[in-house]
Each structure stands twice: as C-alpha cells, then as structure tokens.
Write a structure and sequence with these properties.
The complex is a heterodimer of chains A (274) and B (309). With 274 residues, chain A is of the alpha/beta class. Chain A has 10 helices and 7 strands. In chain B, helix 8 packs across helix 12. Classes of the chains: A alpha/beta (274), B alpha/beta (309).
Amino acid sequence: MTAARVDLATLEQYSREIRGTVVQMSHASGAPHLGSNLSCIDILVAAYWDAVRIDPSQPSDPGRDRFILSKGHAAAALYATLALRGFFPIEQLRRFNEVGYHLPEQPAPDCVPGVELATGSLGHGLGVAAGIALAAKIQRKDYHTFCLLSDGECNEGSVWEAAMFAPAQHLGQLTAIIDYNGWQATGRSDEVLALAPLTDKWSAFGWDTREVDGHDLAALQDAIRTDDARQTPRAIIAHTVKGKGVSFMEDDNNWHYRIPTADEVAAARRELQL
Amino acid sequence: MRNRFAATIEELAAVDERVVLLSGDIGNRLFNRFKERFPDRFYNCGVAEQNMVSVAAGLALSGLRPVAYTIAPFLTTRALEQIKIDLCYHNAPVVLVGVGAGLSYASLGPTHHTLDDIAQLRSLPGLTIMAPGDAPEVQLALESALSVDGPVYLRIGKKNEPVVHAEAPPFKIGESIPLRAGSAACLLSTGTILPEAVAAAEDLAQQGIEVALHSVPTVQPLAQDWLASLAKQFAVIVTIEEHAHAGGFGAAIAEAIADADLPVHLVRIAAPDQFHHDGGTTKEARLRCGLSASQIAHRVKAAYVQRAH
C-alpha cells in the first residue's frame, strides 16, 4: 500500500504547497495555531508519502497503518496533507472550519477519510495509539501505528503513563514522533517545565530513540520508515522550527495565535514560491 | 460482586474472542484463571488509569471489546476526560467496571469513597451507566453491557454483599426489576444499597405499610415511559442510592419528573453532600449517612404519613 517512491524534489514541492495552503486556511477561517501547523508539515509529508502504508481509496482497510495526530491543533496541516495525498478533494479545504462542515478546527470522529482520531485536548493520542498497537499484537496483524505529539504536549502526565505502558507491553509496532519546535502556547518549552533532556527522557522510559532534523525530508523518511520484528517502541525526536517556511513567522511564538492578513498570506506564498 | 464479575468475564471471554480485560493493578489473584485461560487477553495497565482508558479506546476502535477494571474513584474521576473524549466522543464500545463503589471502602476514607461518579458521568453524552444491586445483577449487567454499541460504566460493590435475587430476574437495560408490590409508595433502589432497601421495605410491611420496591440497575438512559407509568400508579416515589444527593440517581429522577411534569411526590434518599472522614465499616458509614434500612424506612414512613394526612 506504500505509494510509489516519490523523489525528494517533489516531496519538497508538496511541503511548500501544504504550507501555502495552511497559511491561506488560517487567514480564511480565522483558525490559530499557524506556527504549530508549519512546524510539523515536513514530518507529515515524510510519513504520508513513504512510511505510512495506506491506500487513500481504502481509508478503513483493517490492515492499514494508523497515523494519529495527537497535537490536534495542527488539524489544518493534517487535512491539507490528506487532501494532497488523495483522501478527499483539495477543493474541500476551502471550507475548513465552516460551521457544520466536516472539516472542523480540530479533528472530529470520522470527519474526513484518513482522520483516525478526534484530538484537541493534549495527552490523549499516545495512549489510544498504544491501544491500537496492542490490538494489532492481540489480533496478530502487522500494521504499524504512528503518533505525532507536540513538545508542549509532553507536559501532560498521561503522555508518560503511555510512555511507560508501551515498552512494558513490547509494542514494537508503535512509533511516537515528537515535533520539538521549542515553543508552547506562552513560552519556551524547555523553560515552562523542565522538558530537557527530552531524548534522554524517552530513552530512560524504555523507547528506542532517535533525533532527527525535522525539516530534512530524507532524514525524516529514514527515521520514520518501519522495519519488522521489533519489540521496542520507537520515539523520534524531530527538531523543528515553529512557523517553518515563512521567514517572518519562524521561531516567533506570536504565530501560535495570530491570524495572517491577506498581505501576509501573499508574502508567505511568494516566499514559498507558490 | 467482584467475584461474580470475575467469573462472568471469564465466561464471556470464552465465547467472544474480542473480549480483552484490562486491570489497573488490582485483582491479582481474582483473575488468575482468566490469565491462565486467556494469556493474551489480560493486561495489567498499572496505576495509570488515564492511560488504561485511552488504551481501551484504541482496542475498541480496532474491533475488540475491552473491559477496564479498577477501583471506582480512580477509574472515573481520575480518568474523566479520557472517558469523555476517547470513549464517549468516539462512541467506543468499552465497558468500564468500577469496583468498591459508594461506601464499599468506607474505612479508607474520602479518597476511596465513590459518592460522585454518577454525577460526573451522567452529563457525558452516549454513556450507559449501570449500578447492579447484587451479584446476579452484576452478571446480567455485564452480559448486557458487552452488547451495547457504545461505552458503558458499571458501578459495582466489593465482595460478600447479600444476594437479593434467588434466581436470575428478567433483565433489560433501561428497565427496573420489581421486587415487591405495594401501594403506599414506590421505592426505587439503585446499586449497592439494594439489601438495605429490601430490609427497609420488610420493616415497613411489619408496620402495616406496604410499599412497592424496584431494583433499578440502569441509571442512564432512563426510560421516560417507565417513570411516567410509575407516576400514574404511585403518589410517592422514593429514590435510594449510595451516592451523594448532588447529581446522582435521585437527581436524574427529579429531572425526569420535572421535564415531563409528572404529578408525583419525590423523596430522595442519598448520602449528604460532604466528605465523610470518620471511616469505620460500610455499615457504620451508611448509618452516619442516613442509609441504613431503619433510617430509610423512617424517611419513607414520614413521607407516607405526611401525604396521607
């Protein structure tokens, strides 16, 4: 079910397109969290065009890999990725956050094909992902479960409950990816709580950990791609930049909540060569 | 009740390979046989109730029928948001079983009392809430719960409670189980307090006051027609529960009466809305809360006499 391998130049083009789309979606809908969306787009592209074995025409195939967006505030990035990957028509993205339409500001149950879980309150995704991975083990299926978390999300105690559970149950078909963009809503994620050393924490909790440049698509592909016969869950710490891809948004936490103006959308899209 | 739960879940797992039992690090010896028979369908999730509920959601969303079991306050209050989002929002078919509900663990103090679970959970859309009154009702409730296409919370006691039903009664979610006929009032008892309600009804009969008594193992969803029918038959309805006044079974009945404008006088017998620090046995704690059989009988008699005059 893996898509035909796509060359890196094309993947980079997809990342730019999704970034431009997400900036436009924020402007049109008034939905915040733009910086958090932009930081995880390369992770989504590397996952959905390579490691995640899924057929957009069979979104409920019991044998599919599962990708859980635990940082539900990056819904726009997920929707744009799913649309470009072929789960639903790209034109529908214009109706993001429209009242009563099935593209809500945060993922809802069964909102569009490809969305596996309703999220938005942080700290839920990894536990559910662990349950889905445990189900694969019980049912002797070979699908893999991926879960994308934010660094601020790692403030939640429930993340660490799941982090202790997965290695105890030898959930080798589970991968956590942490979008380590260094910010949470109101401050640096290493300062609000003692998050660092984050990689050491995941290692100490019993996960196979790996650090990666979260904007290097080739490195991300290499890190996320799954192998077989593994007994230990994997944690990928992806070092990212909040607001990545738009110079005046990069590493500026105002874009956690700010909505871009029409002029800012145009400037962003010019930078993204769109 | 918990022994009957363990026996029943083992029987259900034998006939349905989707059944998976999760425990919050309790009931070790209780589930020895289950673990021997179904080693890949029992998981000790540790003292991590939030994660246990999320894991249960993941299992349910993958086609399995998980049953998550631990001490009632830790399962409900601790993991409330996981129940709300991961289970109810997704309508995930998970059965939560809270053991030691009400004042079962009276001596351990307010940390282990469960007098607020119904109030907290009743506002969650799509959640079925059941409170069986004795071991046979535990078995029937669990069997029914696994057929519900959505989340269910089962609130059970501890062990060695009196058995009220000599034989398994007819059981259907949403319907009550008549135990006595009478006309002075209708007593509706939910959950672990049932033996006290039975004794209260017997006490009243000896005083010449014949009351009807129903065990009500389903707290939610309440059948509107059922209550309207009772309101036509009785001038006084009495709810009895081992739960706080605020938001519990009696409150649910009060809301239903108000919403349907039913012409009936309601007496709510429940624990006072406060922490109960004094410890002691369940019997002693019930006495302090006005939930002993004689106290229940006294309240019912007073209401009956007041209405009669």
